Amino acid sequence: MRFAFKTSPQNTTWSEMLPIWQTADDIDVFESGWTFDHFYPIFSDSSGPCLEGWITLTALAQATKRLRVGVLVTGIHYRHPAVLANMASALDVISNGRLELGIGAGWNEEESGAYGIELGTMKERFDRFEEACEVLTSLLTNDLTTFDGKYYQLKNARNEPKGAQQPHPPICIGGSGEKRTLPLTAKYADHWNFVGGTPEEFAHKRDVLAARCKDIGRDPKELTLSAHVRLGEDRNYRKVVEDCIALGAEGLDLAIIYLPPPYDPAVLEPLAEAIRDSGLLSTP
């Protein structure tokens, strides 16, 4: 199994987040670090502070040398996919090919409504997301993109320079919906993120995703399977390891450990040591 960490840029400060990433950059247990894409804090007081995820990630990419970096995941309705494609390519260039491109259909009604950004019905969200996946992948790989959809229309559109990774930065789709999310993951993604749940729920969604891959002639083993695993405020590292063992038994490839604020670099080495001692860590 491989390991990553996530620091949501909510209810925190830049000076608090930065040392976590710089410390993790020197601990080879962690292959990647992730932020999220919200403008209000989620699952807490929404009036609190929240740093914008992509700007924060860009600064963190410059402050690190080894870690792969990503937003888990980008709400596609917040940015036109042509804008997002340019952002992703630029950050992949700037980071020397370390970007993981996380995307999702979007869900937060509070911040979308406050900003006047149309979220739409569930069907509208996924119709838009499906178009965005096609637009994004084309702009990231092709010289010219022409697209005539309901939500997006492009004519001989360019995105230059392309990112450092070819054919494009790995695409991670987050979510577990069996009707739309998992089929789109099978078609467009390199990485699927299971937001959270029991090992049994993970195994069920894994099987659905594998079936959708086979429907289109794709080998399910081509996809990285990840899940959030939470480190509690009690810093129970053994509990993290036990959760990873249970998910690993069901085929988890990458455990993304959600760190609790206030962020403290001192949690990283004991966490890494617990992972090393568990025998779960994949060797290169």
Automatic annotation (TrEMBL):
The keyword Flavoprotein applies. The keyword Flavoprotein applies. One of its GO terms (molecular function) is alkanesulfonate monooxygenase activity. Keywords: Flavoprotein, FMN, Monooxygenase, Oxidoreductase. InterPro entries: F420_OxRdatse_Rv1855c_pred, Luciferase-like_dom, Luciferase-like_sf, SsuD_RutA_monooxygenase. GO terms for biological process: alkanesulfonate catabolic process. It comes from the Bacteria. Residues 13-230 form the Luciferase-like domain. PANTHER family: ALKANESULFONATE MONOOXYGENASE, ALKANESULFONATE MONOOXYGENASE-RELATED. NCBIfam families: F420_Rv1855c (TIGR03560). This is LLM class F420-dependent oxidoreductase.
